[in-house]
Inverse folding.
Protein backbone atom coordinates (compact mmCIF):
# COMPACT_ATOMS: atom_id res chain seq x y z
CA UNK A 1 0.00 0.00 0.00
CA UNK A 2 2.84 2.36 0.90
CA UNK A 3 4.48 1.69 -2.47
CA UNK A 4 1.35 2.83 -4.33
CA UNK A 5 1.16 6.03 -2.29
CA UNK A 6 4.86 6.71 -2.90
CA UNK A 7 4.43 6.05 -6.64
CA UNK A 8 1.53 8.53 -6.74
CA UNK A 9 3.69 11.17 -5.06
CA UNK A 10 6.56 10.60 -7.46
CA UNK A 11 4.25 10.74 -10.48
CA UNK A 12 3.06 14.18 -9.38
CA UNK A 13 -0.40 15.65 -8.99
CA UNK A 14 -3.11 14.61 -11.38
CA UNK A 15 -4.96 17.20 -13.41
CA UNK A 16 -7.70 18.82 -11.39
CA UNK A 17 -11.17 18.66 -12.91
CA UNK A 18 -12.77 21.94 -13.98
CA UNK A 19 -15.68 21.34 -11.58
CA UNK A 20 -14.32 19.07 -8.82
CA UNK A 21 -17.74 18.37 -7.25
CA UNK A 22 -19.70 17.60 -10.42
CA UNK A 23 -20.00 14.26 -12.20
CA UNK A 24 -19.14 13.95 -15.90
CA UNK A 25 -22.74 14.53 -17.16
CA UNK A 26 -23.03 17.70 -15.08
CA UNK A 27 -19.66 18.96 -16.34
CA UNK A 28 -20.80 18.28 -19.93
CA UNK A 29 -23.97 20.27 -19.21
CA UNK A 30 -22.00 23.25 -17.85
CA UNK A 31 -19.76 23.24 -20.95
CA UNK A 32 -22.57 23.21 -23.55
CA UNK A 33 -23.00 26.69 -25.04
CA UNK A 34 -26.14 28.31 -26.41
CA UNK A 35 -24.74 31.04 -28.63
CA UNK A 36 -22.27 32.70 -26.25
CA UNK A 37 -24.22 31.67 -23.13
CA UNK A 38 -23.30 28.87 -20.77
CA UNK A 39 -25.76 27.58 -18.16
CA UNK A 40 -26.06 29.56 -14.96
CA UNK A 41 -27.55 26.51 -13.25
CA UNK A 42 -27.54 22.74 -13.66
CA UNK A 43 -30.19 20.48 -12.12
CA UNK A 44 -29.55 16.75 -11.85
CA UNK A 45 -32.40 14.37 -11.17
CA UNK A 46 -31.21 10.86 -10.37
CA UNK A 47 -33.76 8.12 -9.86
CA UNK A 48 -33.09 5.23 -7.52
CA UNK A 49 -32.40 1.69 -8.64
CA UNK A 50 -32.02 2.39 -12.35
CA UNK A 51 -34.90 4.86 -12.70
CA UNK A 52 -34.48 7.54 -15.37
CA UNK A 53 -31.86 10.16 -14.68
CA UNK A 54 -31.39 13.48 -16.41
CA UNK A 55 -29.34 16.64 -16.24
CA UNK A 56 -30.92 20.01 -17.10
CA UNK A 57 -28.70 22.97 -18.03
CA UNK A 58 -30.56 26.28 -17.48
CA UNK A 59 -29.61 29.37 -19.51
CA UNK A 60 -30.42 33.06 -19.82
CA UNK A 61 -29.77 34.11 -23.41
CA UNK A 62 -30.43 36.91 -25.91
CA UNK A 63 -31.86 36.28 -29.38
CA UNK A 64 -29.87 39.13 -31.00
CA UNK A 65 -26.56 40.93 -30.41
CA UNK A 66 -26.34 43.78 -27.91
CA UNK A 67 -27.63 47.05 -29.32
CA UNK A 68 -29.90 45.48 -31.93
CA UNK A 69 -33.50 46.69 -31.91
CA UNK A 70 -36.22 44.30 -30.68
CA UNK A 71 -33.68 42.16 -28.84
CA UNK A 72 -35.40 39.69 -26.50
CA UNK A 73 -34.13 37.83 -23.45
CA UNK A 74 -35.07 34.22 -23.09
CA UNK A 75 -34.72 31.29 -20.73
CA UNK A 76 -33.63 27.98 -22.21
CA UNK A 77 -33.17 24.50 -20.79
CA UNK A 78 -31.01 21.78 -22.32
CA UNK A 79 -31.92 18.23 -21.29
CA UNK A 80 -29.22 15.58 -21.17
CA UNK A 81 -30.42 12.08 -20.36
CA UNK A 82 -27.74 9.97 -18.77
CA UNK A 83 -26.12 7.33 -20.99
CA UNK A 84 -27.19 9.06 -24.23
CA UNK A 85 -25.63 11.79 -26.34
CA UNK A 86 -28.99 13.31 -27.29
CA UNK A 87 -29.69 16.87 -26.13
CA UNK A 88 -33.24 18.26 -26.16
CA UNK A 89 -34.07 21.96 -25.80
CA UNK A 90 -36.91 24.08 -24.46
CA UNK A 91 -37.22 27.87 -24.54
CA UNK A 92 -39.38 30.45 -22.80
CA UNK A 93 -40.15 31.83 -26.29
CA UNK A 94 -42.35 28.79 -26.92
CA UNK A 95 -42.86 27.17 -23.51
CA UNK A 96 -45.57 28.78 -21.38
CA UNK A 97 -44.62 29.17 -17.74
CA UNK A 98 -40.92 28.33 -18.16
CA UNK A 99 -39.60 31.77 -17.20
CA UNK A 100 -41.85 31.96 -14.13
CA UNK A 101 -40.87 28.47 -12.97
CA UNK A 102 -37.15 29.13 -13.46
CA UNK A 103 -37.45 32.46 -11.58
CA UNK A 104 -38.95 30.53 -8.64
CA UNK A 105 -35.54 28.93 -8.21
CA UNK A 106 -34.65 32.02 -6.17
CA UNK A 107 -37.30 30.97 -3.62
CA UNK A 108 -35.69 27.58 -2.88
CA UNK A 109 -34.45 27.45 0.68
CA UNK A 110 -31.11 25.63 0.71
CA UNK A 111 -30.47 23.13 3.48
CA UNK A 112 -28.78 24.33 6.64
CA UNK A 113 -25.26 23.17 7.34
CA UNK A 114 -25.02 20.47 9.98
CA UNK A 115 -21.97 19.46 11.98
CA UNK A 116 -22.77 15.79 12.74
CA UNK A 117 -23.01 15.09 16.47
CA UNK A 118 -22.42 18.74 17.41
CA UNK A 119 -24.53 21.88 17.56
CA UNK A 120 -28.30 21.87 17.23
CA UNK A 121 -28.47 18.17 16.32
CA UNK A 122 -26.52 15.91 18.64
CA UNK A 123 -27.43 12.72 16.77
CA UNK A 124 -25.75 11.63 13.58
CA UNK A 125 -27.97 12.12 10.51
CA UNK A 126 -29.58 9.05 8.99
CA UNK A 127 -28.77 8.24 5.38
CA UNK A 128 -31.49 7.53 2.82
CA UNK A 129 -30.40 5.37 -0.12
CA UNK A 130 -33.60 5.18 -2.12
CA UNK A 131 -35.85 7.73 -3.74
CA UNK A 132 -34.85 10.47 -6.15
CA UNK A 133 -31.77 12.62 -5.57
CA UNK A 134 -31.92 16.24 -6.72
CA UNK A 135 -28.70 18.22 -7.14
CA UNK A 136 -28.65 21.91 -7.97
CA UNK A 137 -25.46 23.69 -9.02
CA UNK A 138 -25.61 27.41 -9.71
CA UNK A 139 -23.28 30.27 -10.50
CA UNK A 140 -23.34 33.58 -8.72
CA UNK A 141 -25.08 32.81 -5.41
CA UNK A 142 -25.62 35.68 -3.00
CA UNK A 143 -26.19 35.97 0.70
CA UNK A 144 -29.80 36.66 1.57
CA UNK A 145 -29.12 40.06 3.15
CA UNK A 146 -27.00 41.41 0.28
CA UNK A 147 -28.03 42.70 -3.11
CA UNK A 148 -24.79 41.88 -4.87
CA UNK A 149 -23.33 38.58 -5.92
CA UNK A 150 -20.20 37.63 -4.06
CA UNK A 151 -19.91 33.90 -4.58
CA UNK A 152 -18.60 31.81 -7.42
CA UNK A 153 -20.97 28.86 -7.31
CA UNK A 154 -22.92 26.70 -4.92
CA UNK A 155 -24.24 23.18 -5.02
CA UNK A 156 -26.38 20.99 -2.82
CA UNK A 157 -28.03 17.59 -3.13
CA UNK A 158 -31.14 16.37 -1.36
CA UNK A 159 -33.62 13.53 -1.45
CA UNK A 160 -37.41 13.78 -1.72
CA UNK A 161 -39.70 15.93 0.43
CA UNK A 162 -37.90 19.27 0.30
CA UNK A 163 -38.11 22.65 -1.51
CA UNK A 164 -35.57 21.69 -4.19
CA UNK A 165 -37.41 18.47 -5.02
CA UNK A 166 -40.73 20.32 -5.25
CA UNK A 167 -39.27 22.99 -7.53
CA UNK A 168 -37.47 20.41 -9.69
CA UNK A 169 -40.70 18.46 -10.26
CA UNK A 170 -42.56 21.72 -11.07
CA UNK A 171 -39.86 22.54 -13.63
CA UNK A 172 -40.00 19.07 -15.17
CA UNK A 173 -43.79 19.28 -15.34
CA UNK A 174 -43.62 22.69 -17.05
CA UNK A 175 -41.19 21.28 -19.62
CA UNK A 176 -43.12 18.07 -20.44
CA UNK A 177 -44.55 19.21 -23.78
CA UNK A 178 -41.85 21.77 -24.63
CA UNK A 179 -38.91 19.63 -25.76
CA UNK A 180 -37.41 20.02 -29.23
CA UNK A 181 -34.33 18.69 -30.97
CA UNK A 182 -33.47 22.24 -32.05
CA UNK A 183 -31.73 24.76 -29.81
CA UNK A 184 -33.33 28.22 -29.70
CA UNK A 185 -31.66 30.94 -31.79
CA UNK A 186 -29.25 32.80 -29.55
CA UNK A 187 -26.67 35.51 -30.15
Amino acid sequence: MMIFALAALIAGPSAEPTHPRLDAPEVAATDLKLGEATPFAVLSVDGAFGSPSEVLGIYVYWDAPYGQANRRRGIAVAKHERNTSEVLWASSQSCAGLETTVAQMEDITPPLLNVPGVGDHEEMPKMVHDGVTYTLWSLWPRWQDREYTNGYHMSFSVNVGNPLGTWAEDLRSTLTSCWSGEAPAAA
